[in-house]
Amino acid sequence: MYDSDRKELIPREQWMVDSEGPESWERKKYLARDREASCKFHVGIIMSRTNQSGGIHVYQTMTGCELRDDGSTTGFNQRGWDGQDFINYDRSNNVWVTPVPWGESIKNRWNRNTAYNQAWKDYLEVECI
């Protein structure tokens, strides 16, 4: 669990830290802090794209990966806004896709950043596994 007040990553079980080692745990803490900053930044952008100036909103990110029995891997990163799909990373094509018109400008900006896309691909295929 990431505690945004303390800026700390808190293991639910100690074996999580012990099995991965301190360097890996520090990397995950860095990623959690980065995700927090990124979410705060994106909330403002999305609110302006959806013509919202206040209220309570939900920005959700789900990331996951799987090592299959045959040795192949799969992974995903998808984002939502107020319960609606907003943008998803297409790992096979190394691009972002969006089902909503207001997500087009964000998708286009992210797709121009090929290093960002490659970093997500590498994360899902290597580091996450």
UniProtKB/TrEMBL annotation:
GO biological process, one term: immune response
The entry's keywords: Glycoprotein
Domain MHC class I-like antigen recognition-like residue range list: 2-129
GO cellular component, one term: extracellular space
Gene3D superfamilies assigned to the protein according to its UniProt record, in alphabetical order: MHC class I-like antigen recognition-like
The keyword Acetylation appears for this protein: no
Pfam families per the UniProt record, alphabetical: MHC_I
Assigned protein family: Belongs to the MHC class I family.
Name listed for the protein in its UniProt record: MHC class I-like antigen recognition-like domain-containing protein
Taxonomic source organism: Scyliorhinus torazame
